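Researcher: I'd like a structural prediction for the single chain below. Treat it as a standalone chain; there are no partners to consider.
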Amino acid sequence: MSAELQAWRSAGAGRETAPSPTGVARVPDAEGAAAWLLEQAAVSVASVAPATATSRPDRQTGRQTGQKALRWAAATVAAALAFVAVPQWASDYWLSAILIPFLVLSLAGLGLNLLTGYAGQLSVGSAAFMAVGAFATYNFALRVPGLPLLGAIALGGGVAALLGALFGLPALRIRGFYLIVSTLAAQFLIQWVLVKFSWLSNDSASGVITAPPLVVAGVHLDHPAGRYLLTLSIVAVLTLLARNLVHSATGRRWQAVRDHETAAALMGVPVGATKVLAFAISSFYLGVAGALWAFAYLGTVEPHGFDLTRSFEVLFIAILGGLGSLSGAFLGAAVIGLLPIGLSLACDAGLGGAIDPGQLQNLQKILFGALIIAFLIKEPRGLAHALAALLQRLRGPGPGAG
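Model: Treating it as a single chain, here is the predicted structure.
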């Protein structure tokens, strides 16, 4: 029995009131009532607690430790395959035409997912910030002697982050579809600036920029395996940073603003600064993705290569993969990148020669769109949620289920 309860009983011993008309003793006052209820609750819990209650947390902790070890083992195997086996065994076509664009689009989808999936801010200007990152990286590498390639990419992402924060300022006053219009203006304005001012493309008549030498720490990465490893390393580092970010206080503030902006403000979350920061970090990721798209994948690029179609492609990656999911960006990029190739091979095998090649290409686009619509109707929360639900069904109910 607590000291407070004993003190109350000693103080209230002389203040006992008469029994009530029903024969039940009345509690002398509110303070005593609270103490009495606490004592009765403690007695009840002690009497009904099962003998195995203390062992259940131990079993749960053991399961969590085993799952964490399994995840680390899977991550280690995946890293070994990606960094060692794939560059050694994959063909140049797979590295250059499939894996590198898959990784870059995954990074772009990840950047948009931080803004839309976690912070709840809508945007259709992703390609504009990719273009900023590409052209800024090109100019840093061209005009700053001795600047390392990774430094130029980081600075290019920083310029994209600054412009992203600038175009995110309207989010302080508007939201929803009105905010979409603001980001759409960024898409057209940035593309116009890159075409209008030829200095940004080193006075190129066509506005095309060419990749600088891909050299990191004295190692030349101009071959397919080198460009793949450069892209994979940057994507892996930024993905780990994003994972830590969404589980930090910043990530929790983003989700609070996304779920209920007014409630977040009442809890003391700086809503305006949180939104602008989300735009800046998302644009940094998109800027780095744009630099990799231009230099590690294409080699040369022009402003029209980052048009509105590219923005919608990044948006579809985030939606298909699942908003608010880091793994969803990779799943969505896999669908956007690999499904058209699979459809093309299937159509060529089944209908090759029977349909005009131009009509066959249009048929592939129709099938691709129909598959996306059907999937979103069936699973609107994206591939990440569908995969998680499938794995849960395969594992079956937990030991405490039912």
